[in-house]
Amino acid sequence: MSTEDAKPQKSSDLRQSVIQYFRKKGYKVEENVSLEGYRGILRNFDLIIQKGRITQGVWIRDWKRTIGINVIINLDKASEEVGLPNPVIVGEKFSDHAKAYANRRKIMILTTRQILQSLKT
Question: Crossing angle, helix 11-24 and helix 112-120, to 10 degrees?
């Protein structure tokens, strides 16, 4: 696989890679899901993944800039409000504060590189 093949060209390519990644790991995947939170506010998730009795929300951020703590906090709040534990966020790079917060709150951070490396094997 050449380096051109290893890097998604568009957001839709990254989304498809993420879907493939989770399906390969045995998850059921549902795309573009809106769930109503306990306060009546709709919360949007790029994916909802389910394996066994565990269901998690996933945000995919195909940004060139670093993903900061505010995005992680918003994902945490959205997931908590709809009752989905341990959400997942996928992006290119994350700030140190975002990583620390995610670690404390059991939010899984996956980089684009991790997704693509996993799909190669």
Answer: 60
